[in-house]
Amino acid sequence: MANVYDEAYALETAIRNSNDYKELQELYAQLQADETGKKLFDNFRQVQMSLQQKQMQGEEISQEEIEQAQKQAQLVQQHDVISKVMESEQRLSQTLTDVNKIIMKPLEQLYEGFDNENE
Amino acid sequence: MANVYDEAYALETAIRNSNDYKELQELYAQLQADETGKKLFDNFRQVQMSLQQKQMQGEEISQEEIEQAQKQAQLVQQHDVISKVMESEQRLSQTLTDVNKIIMKPLEQLYEGFDNENE
Ligand SMILES: [Ca+2]
Ligand SMILES: [Ca+2]
Predict the structure, then answer these.
(1) How many CB atoms lie within 10 A of CB B85?
(2) What interface predicted TM-score (ipTM) does this complex get?
(3) If phi over 0 gives left and psi between -120 and 50 gives alpha, with beta otherwise, what is residue A58?
(4) What band does B27 get if pLDDT is binned at 50, 70 and 90?
(5) Which family does it belong to (chains A, B) (predicted)?
(6) Which of A30, A49, A77, B101 has a CA-to-CA distance to B83 between 20 and 30 Å?
(7) Which pLDDT does position B68 carry in this prediction?
(8) Partner B, chain A 8-47, Cβ-Cβ below 8 Å
């Protein structure tokens, strides 16, 4: 019987060897070499995170902040490498979300079965 | 090269076949057959969840609620099957936390490497 940890490491290796992962690695390297692009991207990330944090903490976000964020989003989308980075990140993130659903299924089913029989 | 989804399903199977998973399945079946124990456990779960929710929403938790929850926790710990269920759940949950760390490592390292080179 395959050990859970062995299988987890096998999955980790499969992720590292996946085309999506290698592509993102390559795109990051390209962006790293592009000083202006990297700054643009870092700035975009920071603004996104600060807005998310404000939202989570229930702080108000001004109309000006929203407009600035939108302008910045348009700007990064026009940047060839950055737009590719963002698409690639989204694909990898979707795969990892799927993977998480797959491996949480056994526990989920156990809880469901346990709960429902008593209702 | 092994496909990410194939490896995820192999990991899922390993989880289902693990001793910890089978043990928890068996313990749930035992608790299901014990009407009083099952009610005690369901009640305990509900109180825990409601307290967690209050905490997350920043609502105040009264001294009385805390004392009730503590009494209930003592009660379930004295129940043989329930205390085993709780230990078993904790073991499985620790394994899944470890697994999650293992499979998130590649992405984490990618981000770290990307970030640090520019600092
Ligand atoms: Ca239920
Ligand atoms: Ca950094």
Answers:
(1) 21
(2) 0.83
(3) left
(4) very high
(5) Belongs to the UPF0342 family.
(6) B101
(7) 87
(8) 8-18, 21, 24-25, 28, 31-32, 38, 42
**What Å distances lie between residue B75 and B38, B39, B70, B116, CA to CA?**
13, 12, 9, 51
CB-CB: which of B107, B114, B118 is closest to A92? B107
CA atoms within 13 A on the CB side of A49: 6
What percent of chain B shows pLDDT beyond 70? 94
The domain made up of B4-116 is a member of CATH 3.30.390.30: no
CB distance B114–A3 less than 8 Å? no
**Residue ranges covered by each domain of chain A:** 4-116
Residue A105 tokens, joined = 């299924």
**Number of CB pairs < 8 Å for A and B?**
122
Amino acid of residue B32: Q
CB B4 within 8 A of CB A90: no
